[in-house]
Specification:
Strand order of the largest sheet: 1-2
Helix content: over 70%
Shape: elongated
Structural class: mainly alpha
Order of helices and strands: HHHEEHHHHHH
Number of strands: 2
Largest sheet: 2 strands, antiparallel
Strand content: under 5%
Oligomer: single chain
Length: 247
């Protein structure tokens, strides 16, 4: 007696979904919010799998046919993983601007030794840096920017066709540009506090020259923290708008 086996998916569907999952899974590992180290890898992969099932009907027509050789299929899957890692790394680099801004503000306000466990990095960082990273992540979901990420994943298959290795030189140039712009943006975000620190230190120097007996350092430390955090709080709204626009 023979039993019929029902096929729930054709080989071309399994291969196409595998290509999508390879790129999406690699990208989700670096995606802001979902790809944080505090999120377990199993949850990230489950999210990537569900996203793959949602995107397959939209991308099925643009996927390549099933290769006849095993090495060709393995090479296509490896290419998709590399593309996902490259795009995710570029997205992750823009979050580095908030880390740079937080480091500068912490140094300027003498709060470098005040550390708090960062839920996005699973390690202690400066309190201001932790606050800025959580603040930036909140802005991403509050402004609906995470929907742009999903749309970008779909459009990436038209920009970089599945199974074809893109130009590596272009990815290298994009990565270098993202790193340089993230550091420059971090300095720009911390510019109000930097300007305050410059004016405050010049004023302290003048007071020290006019009144040598006055304990400048004893009186300046609490003022530096209080006024520095005040300037930082007043500039927080503009900081968030500028960062979201660049992101």
């Amino acid at each position: 007696m023979s039993t019929a086996v029902e096929h729930y998916a054709l080989p071309v569907q399994v291969y196409g979904a595998g290509l999508i999952f390879a790129r999406v899974g690699a990208l989700v590992m670096f995606l802001p919010g979902v790809g944080e180290s505090a999120v377990p890898a199993a949850i990230r992969l489950a999210f990537a799998f569900v996203l793959c099932l949602m995107l397959y009907p939209l991308l099925a027509a643009s996927l390549p046919p099933v290769p006849t050789e095993f090495m060709a299929g393995a090479g296509a899957l490896a290419t998709e993983v590399l593309i996902g890692l490259a795009i995710g790394s570029i997205l992750r680099m823009f979050l580095n601007a908030l880390n740079v801004a937080g480091e500068i503000v912490s140094l300027q306000t003498t709060l470098s030794f005040a550390q708090t466990t960062n839920p996005l990095q699973a390690q202690p960082t400066e309190t201001v840096t932790t606050f800025l990273t959580v603040f930036g992540l909140t802005l991403i979901f509050a402004t609906g920017l995470h929907q742009v990420f999903i749309g970008a994943i779909v459009h990436s298959f038209s920009l970089f066709p599945a199974g074809h290795l893109p130009k590596v030189a272009d990815f290298n140039a994009a990565m270098v540009r993202a790193v340089s712009e993230s550091f420059a943006l971090g300095v720009q975000l911390a510019a109000p506090v930097v300007v305050f620190g410059l004016i405050f230190n010049v004023a302290l120097g003048l007071i020290g020259r006019v009144m040598p007996q006055f304990q400048v350092f004893f009186a300046a430390t609490p003022l530096n923290v209080l006024l520095g955090l005040g300037v930082f709080g007043l500039s927080l709204g503009g900081l968030g708008l500028v960062w979201i626009e660049h992101f």
